[in-house]
Design goal:
Elements: H1 30-44, E1 48-50, H2 51-58, H3 62-74, E2 78-81, E3 84-87, H4 92-102, H5 104-119, E4 122-129, E5 132-139, E6 154-156, H6 162-167, H7 172-184, H8 203-216, E7 219-222, E8 229-237, E9 244-253, H9 259-283, H10 300-307, H11 313-322, H12 334-341, H13 345-358, E10 361-364, E11 369-372, H14 381-384, H15 389-404, E12 407-413, E13 421-428, E14 443-445, H16 450-456, H17 463-471, E15 474-477, E16 484-492, E17 498-507, H18 513-538
Antiparallel strand pairs: 1-3, 2-3, 4-5, 4-9, 5-6, 7-8, 8-9, 10-11, 12-13, 12-17, 13-14, 15-16, 16-17
Helix pairs in contact: 1-3, 1-11, 2-3, 5-9, 11-13, 12-13, 15-18
Length: 547
């Protein structure tokens, strides 16, 4: 019999709230439920929330919040900045697991991006999440009047173009759940990605839109989200089942298109792209899962031994279960999960039961397998999906500067050729009285700096570039300015391309060249590895701007 303990309190406006009447299964892991609540509230707050704010939002005791955030910090999902908890890009590994297992972004995003370029309008892909829709890909236009939706954002079905298409396949039970939610939240205040609707329309209006969408094979959003925003959607169907796999959505505003004009002008091209997407789905080869992750939980015991009661072992174990899924590992049995994570079967089973209760995992009874749901994206993905490289690097530069007591910086290559330049995009100032002070935005000749030499070594074939590539760093001694010694290493994206360089700058009297290599280079490489790991997590399914 399931226990009748209610779910932990959540913020009244949280769209991710577990209904208070839902019984928590007796085998659910309470610390995992609390940890997920903290991650959801942190996401709803934009990725940063004070510890006292988390205490109020979740209704948990402050000591519990402290232990949860300490555990999340150890896992690399959160960093503590004074009294604030800040979500880090590594938290996106959870959402990446869902998106990789889903395969749709990998298979279809290229078509969506090409359509956005052709139409010069924003194009998105959305999937159903109960009675809402959740974005899994965004190709936006860079205009003064731009769209602010993010990958992972949850919207009410009735206020979107994709919603009626998904609703055309709802069961009677799903329609009842939608009506119940509408009664409880008629203004959509639980959906924080959209403004509240002051004058909700009757249920029958959405029911008519769903019927028309199912009949016509397309749907419109005529300023349902907010004045000026219009969209047209077409379903992308799974070739195996004929059901909607996702919806392709073109979004504009009324200064460019009316809703009817959007339909008449762009719908034919959208339909053609959807036909190409469906062909891609039908002809895609089976995914190669590669070697499965192994023993993901091996470090947990050591962390528990080191941190003691401040480390919640059951929370850490539970979160590793989500990362067992991925490309070629969309549906896993209990045995698969236990093998991938290194957890005992009983521990993995309790975590899966907990996630099923929270709506993050769905069990397929016929195959005895488990799959992730779109709700996994609620764990930090939306606020982190628009991070930038300087924002990722900034806290790591500050930590490095504090450790080595020297100024540190991030720079990118902004031009090529004989007059190539670098631009400083982030920095941390040395705590010394005499330190290097180069402002963010400053441009310098690339060849005259170690940061530039590192970046040029990826594109040039000179003897100096070959030496930099061989050693993996550049060290310049007073080449640019008397008394200035600089050391830099490359920062590489998921493809291995050097997209930026990390460097340390100091007065030549501070350390010899040998001391720079022996003392500073290992610290610099360690910092680069930390930044790269976060960059790779953030850049798996999103574009990370370098500026």
């Amino acid at each position: 019999m399931p226990a009748q303990t209610p779910s932990p309190p959540v913020a009244p406006g949280s769209a991710e709230a577990v209904p208070p009447v839902a019984a928590v299964p007796a085998e659910a892991v309470a610390p995992l439920i609390r940890g997920v609540a903290v991650l959801r509230e942190l996401s709803e707050a934009g990725g940063t929330l004070s510890l006292s704010g988390l205490e109020r939002a979740t209704g948990l005791a402050r000591s519990t919040v402290d232990r949860i955030t300490s555990t999340l910090q150890r896992m690399g999902y959160v960093r503590l900045d004074g009294r604030d908890a800040v979500a880090t890009p590594r938290l996106m590994e959870l959402g990446n697991a869902y998106l990789a297992a889903l395969r749709l972004p990998a298979l279809l995003s290229g078509r969506a991006d090409a359509l956005a370029d052709e139409l010069d309008e924003s194009v998105s892909l959305a999937v159903a999440d109960r009675d809402g829709i959740r974005f899994i890909h965004q190709a936006t236009r860079r205009r003064a009047m731009s769209l602010s939706f993010r990958i992972g954002d949850l919207l009410p079905a009735e206020r979107t173009a994709p919603g009626p298409l998904f609703a055309s396949e709802w069961t009677d039970a799903e329609w009842r759940a939608w009506r119940t939610r509408r009664v409880a939240d008629p203004e959509n205040r639980a959906f924080t990605a959209v403004p509240p609707r002051e004058l909700p329309f009757p249920d029958a209006e959405f029911e008519r839109r769903a019927e028309a969408a199912g009949r016509d094979g397309w749907a419109l959003d005529d300023q349902l989200i907010e004045p000026g925003l219009v969209a047209v959607s077409v379903p992308v169907r799974d070739p195996r089942t004929g059901r909607i796999a996702c919806v392709a959505n073109v979004v504009s505003h009324t200064s460019r298109h009316t809703a009817a004009g959007l339909r008449d002008t762009l719908l034919p091209r959208l339909r053609a792209t959807v036909a190409e997407m469906e062909h891609d789905l039908a002809t895609a080869p089976a995914p190669d899962p590669g070697p499965p992750p192994s023993d993901l939980a091996s470090w947990i015991g050591a962390s528990k031994h080191e941190l003691g009661r401040e480390f919640i072992e059951s929370l850490a174990r539970g979160l590793t279960v989500l990362t067992a899924f991925g490309a070629g590992r969309a549906a896993l049995t209990l045995t698969d999960v236990a093998r991938a994570t290194g957890l005992p079967r009983a521990t993995a089973r309790r975590a899966l039961i907990t996630y099923e209760h929270l709506g993050l995992v769905r069990q397929q009874p016929e195959s005895r397998t488990f799959t992730l749901t779109p709700r996994v994206l609620s764990l930090g993905f939306p606020p982190l999906s628009r991070t930038t490289l300087p924002r990722i690097a900034a806290p790591h530069l500050a930590d490095l500067s504090a450790r080595v007591r020297e100024s540190t910086a991030l720079a990118i290559l902004v031009s090529q050729g004989p007059d190539a330049e670098i631009q400083y995009t982030a920095r941390a100032v040395s705590p010394r009285i005499m330190g290097v002070d180069i402002r963010v935005g400053t441009r310098l000749p690339a060849a005259a700096t170690s940061l530039g030499r590192v970046l040029l070594s990826d594109t040039e074939d000179s003897a100096d570039s070959a030496r930099v590539r061989t050693h993996g760093y550049a060290l310049l001694d007073e080449d640019w300015e008397d008394g200035l010694r600089t050391l830099a290493v490359p920062l590489r994206d998921r493809t291995g391309r050097a997209v930026a360089a990390l460097g340390v700058a100091l007065h030549a009297a501070g350390r010899t060249e040998r001391e720079c290599v022996e003392e500073l280079l290992p610290e610099l490489r360690r910092t680069a590895a930390h930044v790269e790991r976060e960059l790779h997590a953030a850049g798996h399914f999103t574009r990370v701007p370098v500026l």
